[in-house]
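Putative membrane protein
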Amino acid sequence: MLRLAAVLYVLVATVLGGSAVIAVMAVGMMKGWQIAGAFGVGLVVSLPIALVLGKKMYSALNAPSAGSTVRHA
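Predicted structure tokens:
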């Protein structure tokens, strides 16, 4: 599950960090520390999101499917 969460973190962090930078720049904050701070906040916020998504996807992949039937001999 941790490997799945790590891959998801790379994707989610890129999206949230980039979105935060665009939002900060749209407001008119153009200083370097403001842009870097927005990206850092996006990275921090994406960590729990990636963990929750990873846990849900892992449990969904390992759950038995609804249509499967198990035959016992």
